[in-house]
Amino acid sequence: MRSVFVSGMTALGLACLPAMAAYGVTREGGQAGESAPVWRLTRVNTLPGDDVLDDVTVLGNGSVWAAGHRVVNGRQRGLVQWFDGGSWKVIPGSPPYELKAVTATSNRDVWVFGPGKAGRWNGRAWTTASLGSGFSATDADGTGAKDVWAVAESSASARHWNGSSWKSVRLPARAAAVDAYKPGEVWAAGTKGARPAIMRWNGRSWALVPTPAITLPAPDAAAVLNDIAVVGPGDVWAVGAVSWEGADNEGDDRTYSRTLVMRWNGSSWTASVGAANAQPYTEVEPDGKGGVWVAQGQWNATLWHVTGSTWRSTPVPRKAGTDAALFSIARRPGTTTMWGAGFTVPQGDPDDPSANGAFWRTR
Question: How far apart, in whole angstroms, are the C-alpha atoms of residue 357 and residue 346?
């Protein structure tokens, strides 16, 4: 969900991070090397200029909606793509700013979010609503056309669409991600100070959910939750990382990170911090049969399929000679089919790198 734009010679900050294995997951029963369901690269855009897909959502009918941005001749505007089950379309007239989040209740009720604004596609045209100049949504989800939530990781408030207008709703902490499981039961995850925070909406207000204390590996370490997924009434996952600044053996400054997993069983939470330096967990999504998919890192990411206590890894597939960034994963409701969205770029340091929006899916 959280991503960095690439245009011309500006590359992802994450490209400098090593593509490490998920060392910390052995504490959750990791079984790296075992086979996992197969992902494939299903589409790479060939649009003029650079384009990046930041978020993806899937409807029960198989429609796929993705949002991001494109740059043509130095001009940036939003990009919204739709797969109707047979062909891909670029939706015309998309909002003229970078789009970070998308959610849809039907093909005629699609919301996309940029800095301080939300755009709505009704199947024929766009309308725009203001969310406030200081609110830049990082995630959104809804249970229906009259119940849509958006959160921004820099804000301790959410925005709620009630079918006629957007309202600001106070949060007890900052939320980076939201999962609307059903009306009156919405979960969000983020941070409160240097600690992870999980919040729950009961239909009237948001409240912090008590979570276990985490022992941080360094005095200046901070723990953050990047995503949350409700698998069922007694099964909630939240993932992220613990990070801090330090020096390597040569005395050079560097950022250290360990994976973070929190899981609720309906009555209590367990928390696990990885034992060694590793890229953060960035996404978690139910797999449709009681397990979850967890994405680790964004640049040439690793996907983990978690069933019971077993973690099986698979790299994000990419064409030879390219690197890939995966920003979002989503499941088609009622199935085990997963989709992912991001972009690919040529490997190395070409004179004129071009980012092309990309889609992945499971077979």
Answer: 13
